[in-house]
Fold this protein.
Amino acid sequence: MSLDPTFRKEAEELVKEQMAAYDPSHDWLHVDRVRRQALKIAKEESSQGKSIDVELVELAALFHDIGDAKFQKEGQPSGREIVMGFLSKYKYEKADLVARIVENVSFRKELAGNKDEWTQSCIELHIVQDADKLDAIGAFGIMRCAAYSGYKNRPLYDPAEKAQLDMTYEQYQAQTKANTGCAISHFHEKLFRLKDMMKTPSAIKMVEKRHDLMVEFVKRIEEEYSMDE
């Protein structure tokens, strides 16, 4: 079942309003790409006989960055509160499930190690997670990393900086709070890890090409910096 057009339009307007406060790496266009990618994955997984609530996938994908911890300020309502407030107006029966997916989409949450039965089995969550990861890598991922680094006033490349490989949740949180780390380190610390975190067969098939592009890009950065061309 697909979303009612009026309901979808109202949901999109809410997302556009929320994303207007974020930087270009987390804007409405990012959300729309994730939505379209999630629907593509859902269609492909459904063709393999899996039972998927496509309406749930679309709503969760639309709302996945609302209340993002990177942009959250003290005293602001949480993503769950905003999503539940909107969906309650429409008496949407699966509002709590939408909010639960939104709360668990991020790399940060996965790094925290929440592996209860629901997070391990919810196919709609896995689809939105994979779609969000796919937009974090490849060509768009490269541009988004640079855009966010510019927004946070972080260096693009610092040859003296040593990336924190196999970064833990605690290290990730500390780095975010301190606003440290250059853009190229982010590839080593997070983006290169995403290939092995995909959950759906459809995303696993898509990820290799995007991952390889990033590897080649970082290699070229290092070659250009060393002038070894």
The chain has one domain: 5-226. Residues 201-226 form the longest helix (26 residues).
